[in-house]
Design goal:
Blueprint lengths: L15 H7 L22 E4 L2 H10 L6 E4 L16 H7 L2 E4 L6 H12 L5 E4 L19 E2 L2 E2 L9 H18 L4 H29 L4 E5 L5 H7 L2 E4 L12 H13 L4 E5 L5 H9 L4 E5 L7 H5 L4 H16 L13 H5 L4
Parallel strand pairs: 1-2, 1-3, 3-4, 7-8, 7-9, 9-10
Antiparallel strand pairs: 5-6
Helix pairs in contact: 1-3, 2-5, 5-6, 6-11
Length: about 350
């Protein structure tokens, strides 16, 4: 289904979606947004509310007429971001909206409700459908209850490559429904991605964690990495105990982290690429920790990553895996990652 074949005019030469986008009704819904690029393609377009699933989508859509676009701007974290109202046009004019399910991104929930209220045709693809979520970590702020239809559950499932496979399947089914003539290519791409990328990443992670003598990791980051711990049998201890990357670090959080570092003789810690450096610097200054290195829950990208066309796979290989090798004690920093990795990322700014 192309943009041309699904148009129905409202008497002024505009498609239904163009008419809605031009009017004020959708903007009154309190939507948030950022980019204005989803109408740049002359063919069918799917927009994604989160980087990881944009990346999965573009891999699945390779060599088909479908263009997949990421709504989250470069340099920003996809969880906790509140864009401005221009994203409304992107979603309305898109053929499909790939989202992370209810309760995770409030702006996406508002967008979906507005689409439904105004009877907009944009197909909705929930990447979380059918994914088994784990209970919230015991360290979680007790005031935080989880997400949407999965109260008491941790939403960061895509960090587990096996659970991420279900989201690839969900996106594939949505794309097949959107463009059934390209079903074979969508399914072939999805099968290749699950086998060559997600299963390979799972194997590599397993090798890293199985080789480690320690089974604890201190994170100067928010509570996003529990699925790594659950999948590979390691305790991932965040200093920010809520689910949002913008969460505040309390004096009690700092004291508990410092005690944990002393008790476990931790020399290196991990810090979120798109999060504050302050907690990590404070731990370096207050404990025996020598340095912090980068991790990310695949929730955003830097400009240099975009320039290198990095996706979920490249971020796993070049950011998360080398850091886990170091913080687990498998390798010295200078022996981890590609050439120059330790120099670039040691106590990064």
């Amino acid at each position: 289904m192309t943009n041309d074949t699904r148009q129905s005019t409202d008497g002024r030469g505009l498609s239904r979606r163009q008419a809605l986008a031009a009017g004020g009704g959708l903007l009154a819904g309190g939507l948030a947004g950022c980019l204005g690029g989803s109408a740049t393609s002359s063919g069918p377009v799917a927009v994604a509310s989160f980087f990881s699933f944009y990346d999965f989508g573009r891999e699945i859509a390779s060599e088909t007429p479908l263009t997949v676009e990421n709504l989250v701007p470069t340099g920003l974290h996809g969880h906790g971001w509140e864009p401005n109202a221009s994203v409304t046009r992107d979603i309305i004019e898109a053929d499909a909206f790939v989202h992370v399910g209810p309760g995770f991104q409030p702006w996406a929930d508002r967008a979906i409700q507005t689409l439904r209220d105004d009877d907009v045709e944009t197909a909705l693809i929930n990447v979380r459908e059918g994914v088994e979520l784990v209970d919230l970590a015991a360290s979680l702020d007790p005031d935080e209850e989880g997400v949407g239809d999965q109260r008491g559950k941790d939403p960061h499932f895509w960090l587990d490559p096996q659970r991420a496979e279900q989201s690839v399947d969900n996106i594939t089914e949505g794309f097949v429904e959107l463009l059934p003539d390209h079903e074979g290519r969508f399914r072939e791409n999805a099968k290749r991605y699950k086998t060559d990328v997600l299963q390979r990443i799972d194997d590599d992670y397993r090798a890293i964690f199985d080789a480690a003598e320690r089974d604890v990791v201190q994170l100067a980051a928010h509570n996003a990495f529990q699925y790594i711990g659950v999948r590979y049998g390691v305790q991932m201890r965040p200093i920010v105990t809520n689910l949002a990357a913008s969460g505040e670090v309390t004096p009690a959080d700092r004291r508990e982290a410092q005690a944990f570092i002393r008790e476990n003789d931790i020399r290196y810690i991990a810090n979120g690429v798109f999060e504050s450096r302050r907690p990590a610097k404070e731990l370096v200054a207050a404990t025996q920790v020598e340095a912090y290195f980068p991790v990310t829950p695949y929730a955003g990208v830097r400009e240099d990553w975009v320039a290198q066309n990095w996706g979920y796979e490249e971020i796993a290989d070049n950011i998360n895996m080398p850091t886990f090798e170091v913080v687990l004690g498998n390798k010295a920093p200078e022996d981890a990652g590609p050439d120059g990795w330790a120099e670039e990322w040691r106590n990064f700014e």
